[in-house]
Specification:
It is built from five helices and 23 strands. By secondary structure, the chain is mainly beta. The protein has two domains: 78 residues, Ubiquitin-like (UB roll), CATH 3.10.20; 260 residues, Porin (Beta Barrel), CATH 2.40.160.50.
Length: 440
């Protein structure tokens, strides 16, 4: 019976997408020659004073000798902008005699950022997290990333990482190194009832990642790491331990603009095997995330997401259980969270662009232009989130947690976007939320 309900849940999700797909339209083509074809005899890059040409060229869906149209130019303009290392990207074409040249013009961003931040975990003003987020983007002009984030307050942490997306003669391989410390507040209800609200877990993580960009739109990677943890209460069973883990990741990404997609899909699959019997730890976590972006009429986009999370094993630490309401969040029911071995979650949005994305240049004295130029836009949306944890599946319809509402988003690309949301849960309780970044 449970399997039947899960299948029904998945079917409802996928059945909704084709309904909106009937309204798919082709985005407006660039320039006055919408219907003309463009022969690619040469590709010219301009403005990449720091960025290596290979960083841009590897994102293009066309090559020398291809025949393309203006819609392809627009798609590739957004793909280059999705690198998040340029303030502005322009793509056009012109003739030099009989040679047809595609020209890609970029404006470099500012790449070294020490940014202070303040955020409230779980949308709770009593759970502030603050600190500094240091990023060195596009290191050496190869889109390498060096990051260190220091968070104080609630769930204090330090995370340092290095990512290199271009390795090998053909630049198809990538790697990363990640080190993390986290002092995490307990979310498990069983530990809360036994030891109160002050239970915390200290985590130490080190892992290495190696992957391959197998096609223009797909990536696969394998990572291996070592994890150590300890609780601040010695009475807790298995209050400290350490063990290795390995993880496999697959990603397929055909989005036009990663920061604010209007078409395409994003699929992410991840399987992690923890412990392998070391120190009596052995359990597996897996998740599948399917996101679709479907253009509708005029400025409307239908967004849909299905997320499935699974965990199985004989010795699973309390901190590593799945929690619906924390990851993923249920918008409109911001204070809700529940523990579950398996989680089934779906989200739907209808997005409407109020102000089409445009390049904004502020003229401020003594401030470099890289700080004052943005690709900005304003959009509004309606949303509906649905989720259920497996321990609540005894009464499927009654156990589904839901939230719905409306939101307003403002883009400040390539850096980020901010969102304001007003939501309602299934009991009619209302709430307001502020967030940074795309919902999905």
């Amino acid at each position: 019976m449970i399997i039947f309900k899960i299948i029904l849940f998945v079917f409802v999700f996928f059945a909704a997408t084709p309904i909106f797909s009937n309204y798919i339209y082709l985005p407006e083509l660039l320039g006055p020659e919408k219907d003309s074809l463009i022969r690619v005899d040469s590709i010219q890059l301009m403005g990449n004073l720091i960025t290596k040409p290979d960083v841009i060229m590897r994102e293009l869906t066309f090559k020398l000798g291809d025949t393309i149209d203006a819609q392809v130019l627009k798609f590739n303009k957004d793909r280059v902008f999705s690198l998040s290392i340029f303030n502005e990207v322009k793509v056009d074409h012109y003739l030099l005699g009989k040679i047809s040249i595609v020209r890609i013009m970029v404006k470099e961003s500012w790449y070294i950022w020490p940014i202070p931040f303040l955020e409230f975990k779980e949308h709770n003003s009593k759970k502030p997290s603050y600190g500094v987020d240091f990023s060195w983007m596009n290191f050496r002009g190869r889109n390498e990333k060096i990051k260190t984030k220091i968070s104080l307050g609630y769930d204090a942490s330090v995370l340092s990482s290095y990512e290199n997306p271009m390795i090998g003669a053909d630049n198809l391989y990538y790697t990363g190194v990640f080190v993390q410390y986290l002092n995490q507040k307990n979310q498990n209800e069983e530990l809360k009832s036994a030891f109160g609200e002050k239970v915390k877990t200290r985590h130490y993580d080190l892992y290495l990642l190696f992957g391959k960009r197998s096609t223009l739109f797909t990536k696969i990677s394998l990572s291996a790491g070592y994890h150590a943890y300890s609780y601040n209460y010695s009475e807790i069973a298995n209050n400290k331990n350490n063990f290795p883990y390995i993880a496999f990741d697959f990603q397929s990404d055909t989005r036009d603009l990663a920061q604010s997609a209007g078409q395409g899909h994003l699929y992410k699959l991840k399987v992690t095997y923890n412990g392998a019997g070391v120190n009596k730890v052995s359990y597996m976590k897996s998740q599948a995330d399917f996101i679709f972006y479907t253009p509708m009429i005029d400025r409307f986009v239908f967004k849909s997401r299905l997320l499935l999370k699974h965990i199985r094993g004989a010795t699973i630490p309390f901190y590593d259980l799945n929690y619906l309401g924390l990851d993923p969040k249920i918008r409109g029911d911001y204070s809700y969270h529940t523990e579950g071995g398996d989680i089934y979650f779906s989200s739907f949005e209808i997005k409407y662009t109020l102000l089409k994305e445009t390049n904004l240049q502020l003229d401020l004295p003594l401030i470099p232009t890289q700080f004052t130029q943005y690709r900005t836009g304003i959009y509004t949306y309606t949303f509906c989130d649905l989720g259920v944890a497996d321990k609540e599946l005894s009464s499927f319809r009654n156990s589904i947690t839901s939230g719905y509402g409306v939101g307003l988003g403002i883009l400040f690309l390539p850096y980020d976007q901010i969102r304001f949301e007003y939501g309602i849960n299934k009991y009619g309780k209302r709430g307001f939320a502020f967030d940074i970044g795309a919902s999905f």
